[in-house]
Protein backbone atom coordinates (compact mmCIF):
# COMPACT_ATOMS: atom_id res chain seq x y z
CA UNK A 1 0.00 0.00 0.00
CA UNK A 2 2.83 2.38 0.81
CA UNK A 3 4.50 1.52 -2.50
CA UNK A 4 1.38 2.67 -4.31
CA UNK A 5 1.53 5.99 -2.52
CA UNK A 6 5.17 6.37 -3.33
CA UNK A 7 4.53 5.67 -7.00
CA UNK A 8 1.69 8.14 -6.87
CA UNK A 9 4.10 10.77 -5.57
CA UNK A 10 6.54 10.11 -8.37
CA UNK A 11 3.93 10.24 -11.10
CA UNK A 12 3.83 14.04 -11.36
CA UNK A 13 7.58 14.13 -11.74
CA UNK A 14 7.48 11.67 -14.61
CA UNK A 15 4.60 13.43 -16.26
CA UNK A 16 6.02 16.89 -16.01
CA UNK A 17 9.65 15.99 -16.84
CA UNK A 18 9.27 16.46 -20.54
CA UNK A 19 7.18 19.60 -20.46
CA UNK A 20 7.98 23.12 -19.53
CA UNK A 21 6.38 26.42 -19.37
CA UNK A 22 6.59 27.09 -22.98
CA UNK A 23 4.65 24.09 -24.12
CA UNK A 24 1.57 26.25 -24.68
CA UNK A 25 -0.93 23.69 -23.32
CA UNK A 26 -3.22 24.02 -20.43
CA UNK A 27 -2.10 23.04 -17.00
CA UNK A 28 -5.29 21.20 -16.03
CA UNK A 29 -3.73 17.77 -16.18
CA UNK A 30 -0.78 18.58 -13.90
CA UNK A 31 -3.04 20.39 -11.48
CA UNK A 32 -5.38 17.39 -11.36
CA UNK A 33 -2.47 15.09 -10.71
CA UNK A 34 -1.19 17.40 -7.95
CA UNK A 35 -4.65 17.50 -6.42
CA UNK A 36 -4.87 13.71 -6.47
CA UNK A 37 -1.46 13.49 -4.83
CA UNK A 38 -2.57 15.96 -2.16
CA UNK A 39 -5.75 14.00 -1.54
CA UNK A 40 -3.78 10.76 -1.33
CA UNK A 41 -1.38 12.24 1.24
CA UNK A 42 -4.25 13.64 3.26
CA UNK A 43 -6.00 10.27 3.09
CA UNK A 44 -2.82 8.58 4.31
CA UNK A 45 -2.62 10.82 7.39
CA UNK A 46 -6.32 11.30 8.15
CA UNK A 47 -7.94 8.03 6.99
CA UNK A 48 -7.38 6.07 10.20
CA UNK A 49 -8.67 8.91 12.34
CA UNK A 50 -11.70 9.34 10.09
CA UNK A 51 -12.38 5.61 10.15
CA UNK A 52 -12.06 5.54 13.94
CA UNK A 53 -14.37 8.56 14.25
CA UNK A 54 -16.86 6.98 11.83
CA UNK A 55 -16.83 3.65 13.65
CA UNK A 56 -17.16 5.43 17.01
CA UNK A 57 -20.03 7.54 15.74
CA UNK A 58 -21.71 4.47 14.27
CA UNK A 59 -21.33 2.63 17.59
CA UNK A 60 -22.62 5.64 19.50
CA UNK A 61 -25.71 5.84 17.28
CA UNK A 62 -26.25 2.07 17.61
CA UNK A 63 -25.97 2.36 21.41
CA UNK A 64 -28.46 5.22 21.48
CA UNK A 65 -30.80 3.29 19.23
CA UNK A 66 -30.56 0.24 21.48
CA UNK A 67 -31.26 2.32 24.58
CA UNK A 68 -34.22 3.94 22.84
CA UNK A 69 -35.57 0.53 21.90
CA UNK A 70 -35.15 -0.67 25.49
CA UNK A 71 -37.01 2.43 26.73
CA UNK A 72 -39.71 1.84 24.12
CA UNK A 73 -40.16 -1.76 25.25
CA UNK A 74 -40.30 -0.62 28.89
CA UNK A 75 -42.85 2.05 28.09
CA UNK A 76 -44.92 -0.45 26.10
CA UNK A 77 -44.87 -2.89 29.02
CA UNK A 78 -45.82 -0.08 31.42
CA UNK A 79 -48.61 0.92 29.04
CA UNK A 80 -49.92 -2.66 28.98
CA UNK A 81 -49.77 -2.81 32.78
CA UNK A 82 -51.60 0.51 33.02
CA UNK A 83 -54.27 -0.67 30.56
CA UNK A 84 -54.70 -3.86 32.57
CA UNK A 85 -55.12 -1.78 35.73
CA UNK A 86 -57.67 0.41 33.96
CA UNK A 87 -59.67 -2.64 32.91
CA UNK A 88 -59.45 -4.01 36.44
CA UNK A 89 -60.62 -0.68 37.81
CA UNK A 90 -63.57 -0.71 35.39
CA UNK A 91 -64.55 -4.20 36.56
CA UNK A 92 -64.21 -3.11 40.19
CA UNK A 93 -66.32 -0.03 39.50
CA UNK A 94 -69.06 -2.16 37.91
CA UNK A 95 -68.97 -4.51 40.89
CA UNK A 96 -69.17 -1.60 43.30
CA UNK A 97 -72.12 -0.13 41.43
CA UNK A 98 -73.94 -3.48 41.49
CA UNK A 99 -73.21 -3.88 45.20
CA UNK A 100 -74.40 -0.35 45.90
CA UNK A 101 -77.64 -1.01 43.99
CA UNK A 102 -78.23 -4.21 45.95
CA UNK A 103 -77.54 -2.42 49.23
CA UNK A 104 -79.91 0.38 48.23
CA UNK A 105 -82.66 -2.17 47.53
CA UNK A 106 -82.01 -3.89 50.85
CA UNK A 107 -82.04 -0.56 52.68
CA UNK A 108 -85.32 0.49 51.06
CA UNK A 109 -86.86 -2.86 51.98
CA UNK A 110 -85.60 -2.51 55.54
CA UNK A 111 -86.91 1.06 55.79
CA UNK A 112 -90.26 -0.05 54.36
CA UNK A 113 -90.47 -2.86 56.91
CA UNK A 114 -89.57 -0.49 59.74
CA UNK A 115 -92.14 2.01 58.47
CA UNK A 116 -94.80 -0.72 58.32
CA UNK A 117 -93.90 -1.83 61.84
CA UNK A 118 -94.06 1.78 63.04
CA UNK A 119 -97.42 2.26 61.34
CA UNK A 120 -98.81 -0.88 62.95
CA UNK A 121 -97.47 0.29 66.34
CA UNK A 122 -99.05 3.71 65.80
CA UNK A 123 -102.33 2.10 64.74
CA UNK A 124 -102.32 -0.15 67.81
CA UNK A 125 -101.51 2.83 70.02
CA UNK A 126 -104.34 4.74 68.33
CA UNK A 127 -106.77 1.85 68.93
CA UNK A 128 -105.67 1.63 72.58
CA UNK A 129 -106.04 5.37 72.96
CA UNK A 130 -109.49 5.24 71.36
CA UNK A 131 -110.56 2.47 73.73
CA UNK A 132 -109.31 4.49 76.70
CA UNK A 133 -111.09 7.59 75.43
CA UNK A 134 -114.33 5.63 74.90
CA UNK A 135 -114.20 4.31 78.44
CA UNK A 136 -113.47 7.79 79.77
CA UNK A 137 -116.36 9.24 77.77
CA UNK A 138 -118.66 6.47 79.03
CA UNK A 139 -117.70 7.25 82.60
CA UNK A 140 -118.24 10.93 81.97
CA UNK A 141 -121.66 10.36 80.43
CA UNK A 142 -122.68 8.08 83.28
CA UNK A 143 -121.42 10.61 85.76
CA UNK A 144 -123.32 13.43 84.03
CA UNK A 145 -126.53 11.38 83.83
CA UNK A 146 -126.33 10.39 87.46
CA UNK A 147 -125.52 13.95 88.54
CA UNK A 148 -128.55 15.25 86.65
CA UNK A 149 -130.76 12.64 88.13
CA UNK A 150 -129.69 13.36 91.64
CA UNK A 151 -129.68 17.13 91.24
CA UNK A 152 -133.16 17.40 89.93
CA UNK A 153 -134.55 15.02 92.39
CA UNK A 154 -137.44 14.50 90.09
CA UNK A 155 -136.75 10.90 89.60
CA UNK A 156 -136.81 8.78 92.61
CA UNK A 157 -135.44 5.43 92.00
CA UNK A 158 -134.71 2.64 94.23
CA UNK A 159 -131.36 1.07 94.68
CA UNK A 160 -132.25 -1.87 92.49
CA UNK A 161 -133.37 0.33 89.64
CA UNK A 162 -130.21 2.47 89.84
CA UNK A 163 -127.98 -0.57 89.66
CA UNK A 164 -129.85 -1.77 86.57
CA UNK A 165 -129.53 1.63 84.90
CA UNK A 166 -125.83 1.86 85.70
CA UNK A 167 -125.27 -1.66 84.39
CA UNK A 168 -127.05 -0.80 81.16
CA UNK A 169 -124.93 2.34 80.64
CA UNK A 170 -121.68 0.64 81.44
CA UNK A 171 -122.30 -2.28 79.15
UniProtKB/TrEMBL annotation:
GO molecular function, one term: proton-transporting ATP synthase activity, rotational mechanism
Record flagged with keyword Membrane: yes
Domain of life, source organism: Bacteria
Coiled-coil features, chain-numbered ranges: 72-117
Keywords annotated in UniProt: ATP synthesis, Cell inner membrane, Cell membrane, CF(0), Coiled coil, Hydrogen ion transport, Ion transport, Membrane, Transmembrane, Transmembrane helix, Transport
Localization: Cell inner membrane; Endomembrane system
Protein name, entry field: ATP synthase subunit b
Membrane topology: Single-pass membrane protein
GO cellular component: endomembrane system; plasma membrane; proton-transporting ATP synthase complex
Biological function: Component of the F(0) channel, it forms part of the peripheral stalk, linking F(1) to F(0). The b'-subunit is a diverged and duplicated form of b found in plants and photosynthetic bacteria.
One Pfam assignment: ATP-synt_B
Organism this protein belongs to: Sulfurospirillum deleyianum (strain ATCC 51133 / DSM 6946 / 5175)
Family (UniProt): Belongs to the ATPase B chain family.
NCBIfam families associated with the record: PRK08475.1
Primary localization: membrane
Quaternary structure note: F-type ATPases have 2 components, F(1) - the catalytic core - and F(0) - the membrane proton channel. F(1) has five subunits: alpha(3), beta(3), gamma(1), delta(1), epsilon(1). F(0) has three main subunits: a(1), b(2) and c(10-14). The alpha and beta chains form an alternating ring which encloses part of the gamma chain. F(1) is attached to F(0) by a central stalk formed by the gamma and epsilon chains, while a peripheral stalk is formed by the delta and b chains.
Keyword Transcription regulation in record: no
Transmembrane segment boundaries: 32-48
